[in-house]
Amino acid sequence: VNWSCTLKSAISDIEVDKIELSGRTLMSVPGYSEKVEFGVLVSFAYRVCDSDQEIVVATTRIETMLGDTAVAVHPSDERYKHLHGCRLIHPFCNRTLPLVTDEFVDISFGTGAVKITPAHDHNDYEVGIRHNLPFLTIIDDDGNITGDCGKFSGMKRFEARKAVLAALKELNLYRETKDNPMVVPVCNRSKDIVEPLIKAQWYVKCDKMAKSALEAVNSGDLEIIPEQHIKTW
């Protein structure tokens, strides 16, 4: 769902303003005294288990790498065929990530390798379903880092953005940051940055309810005024 951490509520698509950025932009976010950087693409490396090789991925939301559960490449990408089936080391969390092959990956974009965060990205969610990946929620309703995220747990999401970047640099896993035109989803009520979160949802089964409502009118228990609206009912 579209989640507003300020409102602590899911919001509809029509309540989301899509702000187009041409590149690096500092934006005000509720709850933060300093403006937050958007419109950049950060590249970093995942090291291959039991190997001196690495796979470089890029993201506009570096803090979400704490929830990565796989890296995806296109099955026909010759650059990675020798690594099919390997696992990658997560530098901050006590787990390894599988390298999966999926045709949704655009070979021509970046390195052709995509980090997969199923619980915090709409496209990654679909990849997670297809490959039966874990769905790790690492951002809570308040916009704080949660779960098995080591020293980053408890940080506000955009404070974690800076901290994760600094930690990647310390481990020599950071590769580059460059301008990236993008669309930032903003809640038009709270002006908060919309966070994609997985939430339980419920639906009303309307067939029995509609039948009861129709019977109420036909029996005279419910009167529609004016009568010309009975047909619509």
Write the layout of secondary structure elements.
Elements: E1 2-4, E2 9-11, E3 16-21, E4 25-27, E5 36-38, E6 40-48, E7 54-59, E8 70-73, E9 87-89, E10 96-101, E11 113-116, H1 122-131, H2 157-170, E12 174-179, E13 182-187, E14 195-196, H3 206-219
Parallel strand pairs: 8-10
Antiparallel strand pairs: 1-2, 1-14, 3-13, 4-5, 6-7, 6-9, 6-12, 8-11, 9-10
Q: Please mark out the parts with pLDDT under 50 across 5 or more consecutive residues, or reply none.
A: none
Radius of gyration: 23 Å
The domain tally reads 2
CATH class of the largest domain: Alpha Beta
How many E strands? 14
End-to-end Cα distance: 32 Å
- Described by the principal axes of the CA atoms, the overall outline is elongated
CATH fold type of the largest domain: Isoleucyl-tRNA Synthetase, domain 2
Question: For the report, how would you describe the main beta sheet?
Answer: 7 strands, mixed
User: If helices are DSSP runs of H or I spanning 4 or more residues, what is the number of helices?
Assistant: 3
Bin the helical content: 10-25%
The string of secondary-structure elements, in order, is EEEEEEEEEEEHHEEEH
Could you state the CATH homologous superfamily of the largest domain? Valyl/Leucyl/Isoleucyl-tRNA synthetase, editing domain
What portion of residues belong to β-strands?
25-35%
Instruction: Please state the second-level CATH architecture of the largest domain.
Output: Alpha-Beta Complex
Class from helix and strand fractions: alpha+beta
Q: Give the overall pLDDT as a whole number.
A: 95
Domain Leucyl-tRNA synthetase editing: 85-143
GO molecular function: aminoacyl-tRNA deacylase activity; ATP binding; valine-tRNA ligase activity
Keywords: Aminoacyl-tRNA synthetase, ATP-binding, Hydrolase, Ligase, Nucleotide-binding, Protein biosynthesis
InterPro entries: Leu_tRNA-synth_edit, Val/Leu/Ile-tRNA-synth_edit, Valyl-tRNA_ligase
